[in-house]
Amino acid sequence: MPISVAETLDAFEALAIVGIAREPMREALAATLVKDQAHRGAFEEAFAAAFPAIAVEGAGDGRPAGGSGAAASARGAARGAGGGRPPPEKQPESQPEVASRPRDARERLARWAERPAGGATGEEDAEDATHEASERGEREAERASGDERARKSARGDSAEPLMASSSSRLRREASLLRRSFGDLLPYEIGEVRELARALARRHRGRRSRRRRRSRRGRTDVRRSLRRAVSTGGLPFTLVRRSRKPRRPDLVALVDLSWSTRLAADLLLSLLLPSRDFFRRVKLIGYVGASAEISVERDHVVPHEPLDLDEASDLGRVLVRLHDRGLPISRNAVLLILGDARNNRRPPRVDAFRRLAARAGLVAWLVPEPRARWGTGDSALPAYAREVDVLLEAPDLGRLARALDALAAMPLRQRRVARRLRRPLA
Amino acid sequence: MEITAEAVRAGLRAARYITTERIETILHLALVIERPLLIEGPAGAGKTEIAKVLAKLLDTDLVRLQCYEGLDEAKALYEWNYPKQLLRIQADQRADRGWNEVAVDLFSREFLLERPLLRALTAPRRVVLLVDEIDKADEEMEAFLLELFSDFQVSIPELGTVRAAQRPVVVLTSNRERDLSEALRRRCIYAWLDFPGVEKEREILALKVPDLPPRLQEQAARFVNALRKLELQKAPSIAETLDWARALRALGVEELDAPVVARTLSLVLKHEEDLRKAQSRVATLLAPT
Known about the structure:
The complex is a heterodimer. Chain A contains 15 helices and 9 strands. By secondary structure, chain A is an alpha/beta fold. In chain A, the strands form 2 sheets. Chain A has a 7-stranded mixed β-sheet with strand order 6-5-4-3-7-8-9. In chain A, strands 1-2 form a two-stranded antiparallel ribbon. In chain A, α14 links the parallel β8 and β9. By secondary structure, chain B is α/β, with parallel strands linked by helices. Chain B has 2 domains: about 120 residues, P-loop containing nucleotide triphosphate hydrolases (Rossmann fold, 3-Layer(aba) Sandwich); about 90 residues. In chain B, the strands form 3 sheets. In chain B, strands 2-5-8-1-9 form a 5-stranded parallel β-sheet, with helices on both faces. In chain B, β6 and β7 form a beta hairpin. Chain B is elongated and about 80 Å long. Chains A and B meet through α1, α2, α8 and α9 of A and α1, α2, α5, α9 and β9 of B.
């Protein structure tokens, strides 16, 4: 969880205001330190570890045992499950009596000061729990003395009558976004696909927004003056020069072989809604050979027969595409998704160089962690020299971010060198 | 007014806003620490309402900046009133005045169109500034707001620096359509506002639609809560629940059953797919858990 020094200072300031009654304190720390609901689970876990509320169940001051037992087990589960927030209870939240707070807070603060340093905002460090261990007995005694409010607030661990579903979904999303493609469990793959579609919807707005903004340009003096004729020569309404929408073409070359299959699928579903960001989109899938593909009802459909079990051979595919005259213009983005694992066949960088030279921007998404680039049969270093941007996309989050970064990149205006227009050897 | 936890609670009650203790604590903190309050959560959970309630609580004005795609400084901060300036030039064309006089005249407050942000800065007293749906604004706007919120001053080249006499209370809301920058999050106090649970929603219904039979309040709250647990395109908002409750009252419904739900469901669900999905499960949704 990212926490800056400034936020820590805020947290102290907040604590000074709300005091250290458990419930307000937790919310104060959460509001100042946790800036993303997806991190809330980790915070709860750390908070429970640093400020344990175990003592409270022992209080047993006339509360039905079942209720407190349930709360305890819920908390236990939350701690054990590593970050899950306890399930919401249906009871309304307790209203602590505030009147007695200041004196009480001072007392506690005094006790607090005697503690070993470091535990003051213990959420930073779950390990602080060990420092707490010695204090636990003391606090147990304090709470067991029948401190009604403490009991209530401790129960507040789960007393928030909120529907947990949307925030737990966010947490799940965050963890799926960070999971590398290789580590996904079989049942998670469906979830990730679903998430990719949701992301694509979310990002569509952003890309269209970029385009819309660029529509209004500088003042068009000539047309403003002409319009001014009707107001006696006064340029009363300014006319803006409208910019020509310059949408790039996209040529995507996607490795459909087994090792990059999932990444390819996700890329395609992320690209799907942004079709209107590009003028023309050409999707090409390849393994040992290549075929134009399209996505229909979330399935990749090759337009020609394509053997997916072949060993992938990008070199051969590139030569074919070059010879057949793949339509790439200076207004096109050439996007490759693949691990460049060519099964030790010739990478044919010469063909790639010729194709790349014609494109306005050449981007390569690698669905492998950077540490594995160029190891084994990967020919990535050879291709990389011809690529403008090489982006690491080993998980869905980085894949989506890479696409966003790409959408913002300007195309270079360049001329194709004569030697690259000659036919392939 | 001195801001204490009790004062905030009483103020919320007076403004007829029902919320959790958690949110009360956060609002209290936001008012005392004087940091922008960033509220995220599903649409229709009452994010915008919080700003309105804060304004009521502080007995001050609410200045609202609704963000949208392509919002720029001219629309958010200030703009020179170009046609008016032009008229002015026309009006004293005869008078023989030097450029300096004219410039001083033309670029004065009179010709400045104050947009919400500047209005919040120049207000004579502390106002509540609501920047609604900041996730819809562009990243550039976000960066600009960041700068503004750090020292609450803007410089207008022709006019000089405008500094806030009273720092406004800033409330930002976001539906997470786009992730906000870390820098902005760091500077804010953060609150996640989820839908209320059954109990809170029943309280809200009781407060806002008091003449609805208590049993029906309970049933409606329960039903809407169950609806939100379905994977819907758009979960029913609190406002929609209230609309629905008012409709039920107008229809003189005493008891929530399948035919009544079928007739009125389109008040809470506004997507054809959602309607169909919910219709097929009305029986299970109505079943008391």
